[in-house]
Design a protein that fits this description.
four-stranded mixed beta sheet; 46% helix; 112 residues
């Protein structure tokens, strides 16, 4: 992985249990989908202090690089213990089904 942006992303993904690439910050989201993702994560008990967020609006390289890294075209993107979970819609579906609560608690295998 010689691409420095991908290396930075990889370090963030592997170094944080709860990582959200989003537009804005957890306290001031800059798009509805990012805000929704933060609310869902709070609802399933992710401690706001444990949630690492990366504002893609302040870093164009990360904004483009994360889409390539995950092969996922949209922001926000949530990673749980180094595994890509999905964006806002996926988080909502997992939340509705109860799976997200199990994933966050570490009682379910990561979705593929």
């Amino acid at each position: 992985m010689s691409n420095p942006t991908h290396q930075r992303i990889d370090e963030l993904v592997k170094g944080n249990d709860f990582l959200l690439f989003m537009k804005g910050t957890a306290s001031f989201p800059q798009c509805g989908f990012s805000g929704r993702a933060v609310q869902i994560l709070k609802a399933v008990g992710v401690d706001p202090k444990a949630l690492k967020t990366v504002d893609v609006l302040t870093d164009p390289e990360i904004r483009q690089g994360i889409k390539e890294y995950s092969n996922w075209p949209t922001i926000p993107q949530f990673y749980l213990r180094g595994e890509f979970v999905g964006g806002s819609d996926i988080l909502y579906e997992l939340y509705e089904s109860g799976e997200l609560q199990q994933l966050v608690a570490g009682t379910a295998p990561a979705a593929q």
